[in-house]
Write a structure and sequence with these properties.
The chain is mainly alpha-helical. The chain has 6 helices and 2 strands. A two-stranded antiparallel ribbon has the order 1-2. The two termini are about 35 Å apart.
Length: about 190
């Protein structure tokens, strides 16, 4: 598995939102470093590494979701006493339920696309793992010993993997033609 790219430019003195605007675009760029490999279905390791990069982007976006909410919205929460007796604000870091601010709604849409891509590549990887196990067993014991059931399962898993891979590729191409990366980067860098 490929290591995460080093994030450059984060500073403890900056606001949460300022650091989000530095970190998230770098995570997006990390995902796109794998794009040259995705049109070859046999590049299993690179597809897996792309899935991991997408996963990192997803979780980072989930972490910074609060930075992209409407700053005028109050946070849901309550004042409580901490273990030391001091007052602390307990919050879920979510706005008080009301209509969704436009920025949050757009952020949620971008995040949903990232989640979808991660899940599809996860399905492709799951098939790769199953095929490794099944073909490893077939190679070790001989196909005659394992019988036609395993051969059928291998064939079905290959078909499923092919269909999942093609779904991913179609979605990726659709997003590319619509300028998804550029729109996401612009949103992440310019949202207040």
């Amino acid at each position: 598995m490929a290591k995460a790219h080093k994030i450059i430019g984060v500073a403890p003195g900056r606001s949460y939102h300022e650091n989000a605007r530095i970190i998230l675009p770098q995570k997006v760029e990390e995902v796109w470093t794998w794009e040259p490999f995705i049109r070859d279905a046999a590049r299993r390791e690179e597809l897996h590494n792309m899935r991991i990069s997408i996963k990192r982007l997803r979780y980072t976006m989930e972490l910074f979701h609060v930075a992209y909410r409407n700053s005028g919205q109050p946070l849901a929460g309550r004042m409580e006493r901490g273990t030391d007796g001091a007052s602390i604000f307990q919050s879920s870091f979510l706005p008080v339920p009301s209509r969704k601010p436009k920025a949050e709604s757009q952020y949620t849409k971008f995040l949903a696309v990232i989640v979808d891509l991660q899940e599809i590549l996860g399905d492709v990887h799951d098939c790769d793992v199953v095929l490794d196990v099944l073909t490893g067993n077939a190679n070790g014991a001989g196909a005659a010993v394992l019988g036609p059931g395993v051969a059928t399962l291998i064939a079905r898993t290959k078909e499923t993997r092919k269909a999942d891979y093609e779904t991913f590729l179609r979605k990726w191409e659709h997003l590319s033609t619509r300028g998804f990366k550029q729109k996401l980067l612009s949103f992440l860098r310019n949202s207040e």
